[in-house]
Design a protein that fits this description.
Elements: E1 2-10, E2 13-23, E3 26-29, H1 41-50, H2 78-85, E4 87-100, H3 105-117, E5 125-132, E6 135-139, E7 148-152, E8 156-161, E9 167-169, E10 175-184, E11 192-199, H4 206-220
Antiparallel strand pairs: 1-2, 2-3, 4-5, 4-11, 5-6, 6-7, 8-10, 9-10, 10-11
Helix pairs in contact: 1-2
InterPro entries: PH-like_dom_sf, PTB, PTB/PI_dom, SH2_dom_sf, Tensin_PTB, Tensin_PTEN_phosphatase
Protein name: PID domain-containing protein
Organism: Ilyodon furcidens
Length: about 220
């Protein structure tokens, strides 16, 4: 495990310690059930510099070597470098629905409504969901539906959980939160496709995935 120390302004608690544990799933803050797994330590640090998640405050990443007496201006943005590495987890791929020009929460809600109303309903497939500054890559390791699909960052227009908070019934039992992202249809500049997923592991919550994808989308507009 790795120890993460946070300095605060509370006189009763100047420093707080958080353990970072590693597993085959990746790295995460130990004892924080709402924290997702990250593919590498730098991705974990970057995400917590954007939003605190389970930490009491956001992390601050220095742009210079603190051990040097004379700081040197760095040519690259360390946050952007960490964003390139991204984060990944396994999710349930449910369905993809063409939306014409519709995007935003309405597109996600409409795609979920059509999916839940389908007879028979689509079969959920476990896929590896990786997001980075390059975009979103889905890998179906068992090749039940496809092998790999990539959605460049500049084609992804929206990502969020179901606005109506509906759930997907997992085959092994129990509800799973639904979420989705909207991306432009390949070869089109106007038509969109809404891709729908469900949580597979409570340790990799949809809210954390959505948050990371939303930061990627925001970075494209700067």
């Amino acid at each position: 495990s790795i120890l993460l120390c946070l300095a605060g302004d509370n006189t009763n608690e100047l420093v707080r310690h958080f353990l970072i544990e590693s597993s085959p799933k990746g790295v995460k803050l130990k004892g924080c059930p709402n924290e997702p797994y990250f593919g590498c330590l730098s991705a974990l640090v970057y995400q917590h510099a954007i939003t605190p998640l389970a930490l009491p405050c956001k992390l601050l990443i220095p742009t210079t070597d603190l051990m040097e007496e004379t700081p040197e201006v760095t040519a690259t943005n360390p946050l952007a470098e960490r964003l390139k590495q991204g984060a990944a987890c396994n999710v349930l791929y449910i369905n993809s629905v063409e939306m014409e020009s519709l995007t935003g929460p309405q597109a996600v809600a409409k795609a979920i409504s059509e999916t839940l109303a389908a007879a028979p309903p689509p079969t959920a497939t476990v896929v590896h969901f990786k997001v980075s500054s390059q975009g979103i890559t889905l890998t179906d390791s068992q090749r039940k539906l496809f092998f790999r699909r990539h959605y460049p960052a500049n084609t992804v227009t929206f990502c969020n959980t179901d606005p109506q908070d509906r759930k997907w019934s997992k085959p092994e039992g129990g509800p799973a939160k639904l979420f989705g992202f909207v991306a432009r249809k390949q070869g089109s500049t106007t038509d969109n496709v809404s891709h729908i997923f469900a949580e597979l592991d409570p340790d990799q919550p949809a809210s954390a995935i959505v948050n990371f994808v939303s930061k990627i989308i925001a970075s494209q507009t700067r």
